[in-house]
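During the second year of the project, the team shifted from modelling isolated chains to modelling whole assemblies. The rationale, set out in the original proposal, was that interfaces cannot be judged from single-chain predictions alone. As a representative example for this report, we include one of the complexes processed in the last quarter. Its constituent sequences, exactly as entered into the pipeline, are reproduced here:
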Amino acid sequence: MADDATTAQRTAKRIAPAEAPKPYHHGDLSRALVAAGRRILETEGPDALSLRAVAREAGVSPAAPYHHFKDKGELLDAVAGEGWRELGDAIAQARAEAASPAVAVTEIGVAYIRFARENPALYRIMYRMACDRKTMPEHARKAEGGVGQVAEAILAAGAQPTSELDLHLIQIAAWCTAHGIAEMVAFKEFEELKEQLGGEEAFVRAVLAHVGILSGTARAMLQAS
Amino acid sequence: MADDATTAQRTAKRIAPAEAPKPYHHGDLSRALVAAGRRILETEGPDALSLRAVAREAGVSPAAPYHHFKDKGELLDAVAGEGWRELGDAIAQARAEAASPAVAVTEIGVAYIRFARENPALYRIMYRMACDRKTMPEHARKAEGGVGQVAEAILAAGAQPTSELDLHLIQIAAWCTAHGIAEMVAFKEFEELKEQLGGEEAFVRAVLAHVGILSGTARAMLQAS
DNA sequence: GTCCGATCTGGACAGCGTTTAGATAGATCA
DNA sequence: TGATCTATCTAAACGCTGTCCAGATCGGAC
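Output from the structure prediction step:
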């Protein structure tokens, strides 16, 4: 009876998401597919993330996803989207927890790189998708998204950019730098150095601290002082 | 008759596609395959670079490459190796042509990014391979290779790193920064900005000049001055 | 001149992304 | 209530991929 009732109810609203017996035609697949994709990404790496594998993991036929996503790329985009959202959260948290606005920018960078390091397969998909479409997802660019927060943090740190453009360029430079380090920090040839510095995060902070030496601006400052 | 002769000859050496007579059993395939790979990379992009396509382009069967490369990855590695060598050359040239040692580091960065921009498919393969093995090819790290030159240029610019480690960190920071910009400079969302600044190279230089703002070092210098 | 070992082919295998035709079942309207 | 509509899903097929195998081919050493 109770079972009948719940079944009826479940049927009526067509969901019953996480675990419990699969209800309906086949639950809401979109979400299930994205979840399956992330599961595969975490357990088997980005190379195993085939459309068929995702469908298998979700318990549907290989053609089923095509009723929810135009093609494989669109599914991966959805997975990547989740990643960008979480990266945005991680950055917001790092910013909130920073000891002072002055160090917030660095903390954002560290959080960004840590996210990439803790979710390597996901980060790879995120950037692969971004490169293919040559764009970041909308919400990653907005103020509440990952990158938008950098500009705010820079201003909060007391920087006085000479123009809107100046600020924008700092933001882009920060972004590129973080991405570059994020992609390379796992390279084996840095392992000795990491140990020497007392861990990976220390290494990341050391590299971030040395970025400035390179720029014309930094050199100008050096000569001025 | 002539037809018979040429046919016989062709049969004897079995194909002779491009131009000059291929020597031997089938010429030295290794080199031909790498060349074919680069050709495909340039004309059809990195996604079209399948083992079978390379074999087709070189005029051999899909199994032939396996007598010269353990698997597809090893072939791509060879293609990437050529890329790293050429990138090293481009950097050396930029360094040689720099107006002064003081600007050489920036010029190296610009040359690096320009190379990536002019050979996007090749650069992608280069980094995909590096990421998979988590290492750069040997010769890219040596002094005569691309990255090794950065340290020399930094010293030549008059920088006085406090230690071997300090220099190494600057080098790594430079490398990561260049890579990050190289991968993102093609993004559509920067197009307006590029126009505003008068071209892509101007944009790259502007971003490079703004990198320093981010680092703790730069901030310290700012406060000191 | 015969044999060896390197090189290449043709065919096969499983797995991939994608498309098509047809089955299933919730929702809608009579 | 029952018939119909529409979204969803399956089964089967296509051509592509990377890789392996048995066998053909041929340059070079004995």
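Residues 24-26, 29, 60-64, 67-68 of chain A lie near DNA strand D (CB under 10 Å from a C1'). Residues 91 and 108 of chain A are 5 Å apart (CA to CA).
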